[in-house]
C-alpha cells in the first residue's frame, strides 16, 4: 500500500491517536473524525497505570496468555515511545517508570500478599518485598499521565498535518477507515468505571499503590483514586455511592484520604470484547478495527498502534497479535 494513502480514523481516544501517530510516522496522511473533542472517552477517564503485572494479579491468566504477553510487550513499547513523544510534542507526559506497590486491601483474606508472590513466581514476573507494611514492589508496573499524553499527541499530530474533524463517519465514502470508536465500536461492549482525584496531601502515597481492586496514582497536582467497575453500563453519570465506596476503601489504609479535598469525580466507559482480548485486524477490505482494550488501553495503545500501522501498510502482523483478530468475534455488519 502506498504511504501517500489517505486514512480516516474514527475515534480520537488513545487507540485512534496512537494509530495516527504510527501511521503519520510512516508518512501517511491521516484524518481523525470524532463527534467529541479528542480524548473525551475512556482515555481521559483512565488512571494512566502501565501495569502488566498487577492487572495479571487481578485477572490471573496463565503463563503464555496472549493478553499478558501483549501487555508485557506494550510496557517495553512505552519505555521506547515515552521520550520521543514528549520531545516531539515539547510537553511533559508524566511518564513515571518507578515501580508500583501492591498491598493487601483492608478486607483482604489472610495470606493474600503471599498468594500474589506465589502467582508472580509461577509466571516468572519480577517483584521485591517493600516497606515495613508488607508491600510488594512491581518493577514492571509504572504510570503515565494519560490526559497529558492525549494533549501531547493531539499537538504533535496537528503539527504533522493530521486533520481533526468534529463529526462521525456519515458521508465518508471509500478509502481505508480505521475504526477506533472504543465501546461504541464493533465487537465491544461497555464496562463503566468510576474514579476521583484528590488534592495531594501528607499521608497519601507518592507513587502508585494498588490494593485489591483499588489504587492511588499520584500525578502532577492530583492523586487519582479508582476504580469502581460495572459491566454492561454505558451511562457516565457519577454515582455518589460509588464515590463513597472508593473513598471508604482507600481511607481504611490511608486516613489522609478523608483529610484532603476531592478535586474531581468522573465515570468513563471501557471497551470490552466478549473474551476480554483486544481487537486488531481487518473486518472487511477497507475497514480496520482497533480496540477492545478494556482495562489496559493506556498500556496497550502505543504497541497496538504500531502493529495496526504495519498491518495496514505492509500486510505484516506479528504472531503475538493473531489471537486479537476480529475473525474470532461474531460481528454484526460493520
Ligand atoms: C476509570 C477508568 C480507569 C482506567 N484506568 C486505566 C489504567 O490505569 N491503565 C490503562 O491502561 N487503562 C485504563 N483504563 C482503560 C482505558 O481507559 C481504555 O482501555 C482506553 O482508554 C480505550 O481507548 P479507546 O481509544 O479505545 O476508547 P476511547 O478513549 O473511549 O475513545 C473512543 C472515541 O471514539 C469516539 N467515537 C464514538 N463514536 C464515534 C463515531 N461514530 N465516530 C467517530 N468517533 C466516535 C468517542 O467520542 C471517543 O473519543 C481505564 C478506564 C477507566 C474507565
Write the layout of secondary structure elements.
Elements: E1 6-10, H1 14-25, E2 29-34, H2 42-45, E3 49-50, H3 52-59, H4 66-89, E4 100-103, H5 112-123, E5 128-130, E6 135-138, E7 142-143, H6 146-159, E8 163-166, E9 176-179, E10 189-198, E11 209-211, E12 214-219, E13 222-231, H7 240-253, E14 262-272, E15 279-284, E16 287-291, H8 297-314
Parallel strand pairs: 1-2, 1-9, 2-8, 4-11, 9-16
Antiparallel strand pairs: 3-7, 4-6, 5-6, 10-13, 10-14, 11-12, 12-13, 15-16
Helix pairs in contact: 1-6, 1-8, 4-6, 4-8
The structure holds flavin-adenine dinucleotide (FAD).
Fold and architecture overview:
It is a single chain. Helix 1 links the parallel strand 1 and strand 2. The chain has eight helices and 16 strands. The longest helix is centred in the N-terminal third of the chain and has 24 residues. An eight-stranded mixed sheet has the order 5-6-4-11-12-13-10-14. The mean pLDDT is 95. It folds into three domains: 188 residues, 3-Layer(bba) Sandwich (FAD/NAD(P)-binding domain); 39 residues, no CATH class; 84 residues, D-Amino Acid Oxidase, Chain A, domain 2 (2-Layer Sandwich), CATH 3.30.9.10. With 334 residues, it is α/β, with parallel strands linked by helices. The two termini are 23 Å apart. The radius of gyration is 20 Å and the shape is globular. The structure holds flavin-adenine dinucleotide. Flavin-adenine dinucleotide (FAD) binds next to helix 1, strand 2, helix 2, strand 10 and strand 13.
